[in-house]
Each structure stands twice: as C-alpha cells, then as structure tokens.
Input
Amino acid sequence: MMRRSLSSLPRLLPATATEAGRAWMVTFTDLICLMLTFFVMLYAMSEPDPARYQALVAGTPGMSDVGGGVQPAGAALTATALDRGRAADLGYLGRIFENLLADNPELASVTIEKREQGLVLALPSELLFAPGDATLSPAGRQAMFVMGGVAANIGNALDVVGHADSTPAGSRWPSNWELSLARAQAVAQALRDAGYLRDITVRGHGDGLSAGAADNARARRVELVVRDHGGGA
Output
C-alpha cells in the first residue's frame, strides 16, 4: 500500500515538459532570492566580533588598526582621511595636529596636551588678538583658517574656552570674564566659518593665573578642547 502511494505521487505534479510544469520554478526562484536577501540583511546588521576583527587586521599584511579603523600602514595623517560623521580617536587626532603645527611655523606657539576632558590645544591670545581686543587679528584669522581645516573634518564635539590674565580688562570690558568669553566666541565663529557644522560649547573663565608676568602670559589664551565623543549637529 505504501509503495503504491509513493509511486502515484509524481502524477500529482504537472509534467515538466509543459509550461504548467515549469511555472512552479518561478515562484521557487523568487522564494530563494528573498531568503538570500533576508540573510544578507541579517549579516549586514550584525555587530562584528572585536576579537575576530583584531585577528583579521593583525593577519592582513600592510594593514594596521589606527584610531579604531583600518588604515594602510604608513598612511598620511591628514584631515581629509577623517570621517566628519563620527568622532575620531584622540590619539590619531593628536598626531594630525602635531603634523599641522610642524608644517606651519606661525603655529609654533600652540601647545597640545591630552587631559581628562579631551585633547586640548592652547592658542596664546597674542597669536589671535591685539591687547584688550576680541576681534581676530590678520595673523589670528590665518591661524584659525589653518586650524579650521582640521576641525571642519572631524565629528568630535568641540569646546572653546577663553582665558584672561589678572590685569584689569579696561573700560571696554566690565571684567576679564567678558573679554575671555568674547574671545572664545570669536574663535568659535572662525571654526564655523571654516566648515565645522556641529554645535560648539563656548565658555569664558576670566582670570586663569594671577602671579607674575610669566603666569599672565600663559593665562592669556583660548583653548580648543576636542572631546572623545561626537558633537550635536
């Protein structure tokens, strides 16, 4: 009885030699394509295993893991290699800014320091402003044009912090805090003009240091703080 049932099964399907017999293959092919598309979508949405990722990078000749992404070994550290849609690694950014300062003698007085809040670039006020002024000087505009070329290509959040010394700000400014804030705003606007499209946090800290002429010279500065996370658009 079982043999007879199995032997009669092919009679239920149309003969493959006819068009009706081949019609089911169209639906079957569509089903297979949809299943493949579904599995490709699942794979694309999956998170890569960090251990396997590092093993792949280590085993690929000529590649190295720089700043969380794969970069060819010996690749140039330039701003154009950055992805402005995401925050870049601060160590990688630090090397880019170091190369920038080395290639531009007018930025020799700018210092770079890694702190808890992020990568801090300190720009002396003498580089940017005339004494007691908050309008960028020609040299200051050139310096911000060069610095802005990097800032415009990063997705990291930025803070601009103004500092003043203990010398009275004069009649134009009610206090050193207003002067430091106005200078920070001028630098922030220069970064926006250079193409940085995200929000910038602007702060003024007034008197930074207060003992002696040397301390006053260090206090007069504007700091650009590059955060390790992305900024709001």
Notes: Strands lie at 63-66, 69-72, 111-115, 118-124, 156-164, 200-207, 221-230. Residues 2-45 form one domain.
